[in-house]
Amino acid sequence: MCKKCFIKSVEYKAKRTLSKFSMIKHGDRVAVAVSGGKDSLALLNILKNILSGVNPELVAITVDEGISGYRDESLNIVKCFCSSIGVENRVVSFSELFGLSMDNAMEVRPSEKISSCSMCGTFRRRAIDQLAESCGANVIATGHNLDDYVQTFLINLFAGDVERIGWTYPEPIEYGVGGLKKIKPLMEIYEKELVLYAIHLNIPFQAEECPYKDESIRSAFRSHLNNLEKIHPGIKYNAYNSILKIAKKVKSTNNVIDREHRRCLVCDRDSSGDVCSVCRTLNLLFKKN
User: Fold this and answer.
1) In sequence order, what are the residues at sequence separation of 6 or more whose Cβ sits closer than 8 angstroms to the Cβ of residue 51?
2) Which residues have a Cβ under 8 Å from the Cβ of 241 and sit 6 or more positions away?
3) pTM score, two decimals?
4) Which of 199, 125, 109, 135 is nearest to 164 (CA)?
5) Within 10 Å of residue 201's Cβ, how many Cβ atoms?
6) Which tens digit of pLDDT belongs to each residue from 108-130?
7) Each residue's pLDDT tens digit, 251-289
8) CB of 32 within 8 A of CB of 43?
9) Chain centre distance of CA 62
10) What is the CATH number of domain 3-253?
11) What are the residue ranges spanned by the domains of the chain?
């Protein structure tokens, strides 16, 4: 395809996914989780384009984990890009919400096995939820692409976390007191397509990867899947379609929507147990400290 048709094809795929899974409705206020990487900035640009003229409002939300020599660059990229397209950007840091930065957490984490990505993911999800709530948003859009979706399935599968596979089905489910919904409009788009989309539109993005990323098994799955894709083009998309069917079946079988809702005894937010993962992680870190 030529440049113009390629750009249209990427935006069409995102629009088709939004429609297929009824991700955004009239009157929604959408908070786009923007990190400064190619996926989230591409998502913000796509939503800005395809939602122009309709009622949903957009706001960009950014989490500053506090990773020295890494996050500062992306914060500036997000700020400048949001300003250039006329979208409000709000930022919150781990230090503000949890009393320590990601670098601090890495220094004080206990000897028990707790990976950087596990800590960061737990804190980031909570930070995004709270920031979206503070913006009056009821929908959170994240830049997870097709590659991410297949990798997440494998991570859950190898971890034996079958119920979580059902949670990945893309039909939005409300959670929390404010009825938040999370959506992934880019989940049917290859990562490499989003790279080209950003380059063609001169969207600046941070290419440097997180210095703590190698502690996650995701990197191994990413490398393996990329190698398979080179040998068998289209295998990721075939895997995506199969995973979608599995996730729908698991969701239905485990009755994910109607699972018991609990409140954390410490922070009073939604939790799958008596104490949420955020409070459990903080307890480990501060107990060690």
Assistant:
1) 24, 30, 58
2) none
3) 0.90
4) 125
5) 15
6) 887 666 788 889 999 999 999 99
7) 887 654 445 568 889 988 888 788 999 999 998 888 755
8) yes
9) 11
10) 3.40.50.620
11) 3-253
